[in-house]
Amino acid sequence: MDEYPSKQVPENLDDPPNSRLFVVTSRCITEDELRDSFSVFGDIQGVWVVKDKQTKESKGIAYIKFAKSSQACLAMEDMHGKVLVEGTKPIKVFIAQSRSSTRHRDVEDEELTRIFVMIPKTFSEEDLKETFKEYGDIEYCVIIKNKFTGESKGLGYVRYYKPSQAALAIEICDKAYRAILAEPRSKSASTEDYSGNKVKVLVVVCLVTDPGVLLSCIADPGNYTVIDYRSGEFTRSLMMSTRAALTQEQIFALFDIIPGMEYCELQRDAYGMSKGHALIRYSNLGSALYAREKLNGFEYPPGNRLAVNFVDDGEDRRMAMQFVAAQMMSAVWNGPSTSQMMKPGFSVVSSISRIQTDASLPPPKKLAPPDSKTKERLFVVFSPSPLPPDVLEDVFCRFGSLIEVHLVPGRKVGYMKYADKQCADEAMAVLHGRVVNGVKMKVMLADPPREESHKRPRTY
């Protein structure tokens, strides 16, 4: 990337943090046009269009530095997807990568919406919410408490719905609260609860002489509890009940922490409204046992206690028990596909449960011939991780003329090639922002391949 002209550079591009935007535009967009469009959101300290060192032509990338983080976040929220000049493609706006971050951040990044504050120990969660609600709509507040005494530690989290609201709270609130953006939540095996204590999980599995008996000990070191799971009440399927309005995506992400989940569906009434129940099924009994042990009574979101119990949804429990011993040794933590463990011809996942999505999908259609000319390419960003190619092909082929699916190795992005532009536009309109099998997708038009003769042609 070209360096910024030294005469325009502030002393610290990351001061304050998250005050610089990364903008993907058309190559014809000028610095003046960017400045005019973004100046309504606050004091702009600099606009830089990245140019090719050889040709001095715009690369279609620009940086915009604001005086305040809240201004940059507000600009990102409002301008992402807008068309600046008639006839050009919609722009993409992100918070630019800083030295403390490894990536650009977008409007849906949780790390930009959660703040950490120091509060009086007498504060209740209602006091915390009342204090910070003037800066924007609050999704939830959490006060960190001592695990044993239940007393407040004088620390808390406030989660807003928008990054600009969190940034505004940090900038304006009383300095005594020492408000900062909260550290991202760890996804490692050792997780941290809201009391600030490390929670370590130890699983011990014992296979005894009777192959029908599975003894599983789930406890802290030195305090093992042995449970005999021979009882017929245990199945691979769970029913979760909640009073809070959880989405399909939230439930999937919660139960997918335990390896082996093959089915997750939020129960809805005839009008599409949540019934407050969800059916979850695992590929092995051990995973279901562990999920029930750890998530029954778990508060998510804080203040809403989940109820998780075993349920018989008609699956063949005898088949599950027959293979549970072998699966527990290799599948609970390593998560191999169920096809490696089950007998040939036995399929656990039905065709109905293959695709779980909140989008209304048409029936599958045939792929276009591989030698078809590409008329449009879609660029897809996956969160938290890419979907398998066969699932993507199943989803994106339903709009017709799909040629092929390409995932970029080592990255959470991919490309979908279509032989018909209208089919690609329809796929983008239906699937952008939707969740498939717990993965949220951002579907956008891909940038056209570069035409410079000295560049290697794209292979996807």
From TrEMBL:
- Record's InterPro entries? Nucleotide-bd_a/b_plait_sf (IPR012677), RBD_domain_sf (IPR035979), RBM45_RRM1 (IPR034203), RBM45_RRM2 (IPR034206), RBM45_RRM3 (IPR034207), RBM45_RRM4 (IPR034208), RRM_dom (IPR000504), SLIRP/GR-RBP-like (IPR052462)
Q: Which Pfam families match?
A: RRM_1
Q: Which Gene3D superfamilies match?
A: 3.30.70.330
Sorted keywords for this record are: RNA-binding
Q: Does the keyword RNA-binding apply?
A: yes
Cite the RRM domain residue spans from the record: 19-98, 113-201, 231-313, 376-448
- Tell me a Gene Ontology molecular-function term this record carries: RNA binding
Q: Per its UniProt record, what PROSITE patterns does this chain match? A: RRM (PS50102)
Q: What is this protein called?
A: RNA binding motif protein 45
- Report the source organism: Amphilophus citrinellus (Midas cichlid)
